[in-house]
Recover the amino acids of this structure.
């Protein structure tokens, strides 16, 4: 009887936890490290913020290609999606790179990879925070 | 904001920077204890560099 009485509360708790986890993943995507910070995982939050920030800073400094939504082919679309993974840092990269990309040199090509890696890394970190919020791993 | 930053890195410097930053991120995300993190970061960095330099040498005969 006790189990039956307690049963309706469990799905509600699960849905609350799921909603919180979704909030965490969105926060982590928008601001790198914020998802972990909300979970009080300070070391990971700082590491995510700094590593994604460094990649964006160097990527933009090396004049890598910051893709926009005006993609001409599938690769540019993929690049745009990867770049968007950095959340607000995508706009930081665009603001830092007022002279535009220069992929005629190896630096610019590496910069493009740095920016894409920053986005993908941030998505990985946000998903990690999501899993931690759901209590699956930390 | 103006583009006040500008870097010119060699191939090796770019690879070192990328490998170091990614290794640190992986170390912090996948391990909890500080000692375990440091071990993971060092091992990951070593493998990044080993494989990067290895692939570089493997491509060398076809580079000209």
């Amino acid at each position: 009887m006790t189990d039956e009485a307690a049963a309706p509360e469990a799905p509600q708790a699960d849905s609350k936890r799921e909603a919180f986890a979704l909030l965490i993943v969105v926060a982590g995507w928008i601001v790198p490290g914020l998802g972990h910070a909300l979970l009080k995982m300070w070391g990971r939050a700082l590491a995510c913020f700094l590593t994604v920030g460094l990649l964006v800073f160097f990527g933009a400094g090396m004049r890598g290609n910051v893709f926009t939504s005006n993609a001409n082919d599938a690769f540019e679309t993929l690049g745009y999606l990867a770049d968007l993974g950095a959340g607000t840092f995508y706009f930081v990269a665009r603001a830092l790179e007022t002279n535009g990309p220069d992929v005629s040199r190896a630096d610019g090509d590496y910069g493009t990879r740095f920016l894409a890696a920053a986005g993908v890394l941030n998505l990985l970190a946000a998903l990690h925070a999501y899993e931690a919020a759901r209590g699956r791993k930390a | 904001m103006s583009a006040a930053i500008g870097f010119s890195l060699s191939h090796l410097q770019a690879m070192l920077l990328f490998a170091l930053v990614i290794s640190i991120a992986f170390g912090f995300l996948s391990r909890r204890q500080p000692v375990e993190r440091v071990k993971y970061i060092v091992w990951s960095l070593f493998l990044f560099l080993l494989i990067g330099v290895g692939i570089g040498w493997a491509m060398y005969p076809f580079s000209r």
Notes: Chain B has one domain: 11-62. Residues 21 and 41 of chain B are 9 Å apart (CA to CA).
